[in-house]
Amino acid sequence: MSRMDQDFDSGSGYHFDVMRRAIELIDAAGPGLKLEELAAGMNMSPAHFQRVFSRWAGVSPKRFQQYLALGHAKALLAERFTTLETSHAVGLSGGGRLHDLFLRWEAMSPGDFARGGEGLVIAWGWFDSPFGRALVMGTDKGICGIGFEGEASAGEAMADLAGRWPKARYVEDPERLRPWAEAAFGASGVSGEAPLYLIGAPFQIKVWEALLSIPSGQVTTYSEIARSIGHPKAVRAVGTAVGRNPISWLIPCHRALRKSGGLGGYHWGLPVKRVMLAYETARAEASPGAATGA
After folding, report:
1. Fewer CB within 10 Å: C terminus or N terminus of the chain?
2. Is the model's pLDDT at 291 over the cut of 60?
3. What is the reported pTM?
């Protein structure tokens, strides 16, 4: 397992709250904000703030500011664009996804999907993640949903995911999901896998499978996804399927950008998408080879 989120096990919730406030200050002040000014705005000493920030991000606050800039998506598209057909051909879909964590996945049959999750028992629980509190859902076959409490409240996130499969039975059972959640978010010392159970229509699952082929630290476009699944003119439908991805972060819909280099949308809010992209770029820089699937 690669070097991902070393703070998940004890302090990532606290650290993300610190990061979120810092990012708000960075956005308000612009790129010229100095470390001393940023630390003062956080009521922390510069040394302590730099240590906390660098532990979470893997790079200095100044470097991370560059990754948060609105032009960063265009830079990623120019420098780290992934052609999905090539990714499949060279095996990146297995070796490069999700920071080298091994994922296995299977999909629900179309008939079962059409029944709205009837007969499924879905466990759920809340966990700390590098991006704030995350709602994780799973069946006995693997994780079927991840949502984030940010722009959405906890209740809204729960209603959103549960509404995807209205006839399923939901049981709060975080301990059952904990090993998968820890693997998903890179808890230090965890070597297990995070299996996925994709619940969606056949077209959606094709799109989500394409997303799984994008290596960490790289990006692609909605039109490239459409070409890779054999529907080059279905860019709008692909965008809708990307937006309906129920397993955020693990199925990396945040790595899909507009052809212009714009961020596009994100179901859990564009601030989360920006942070995810910046976080992955920082981790790729901190761990040479991660962005290429090594």
Report:
1. C
2. no
3. 0.80
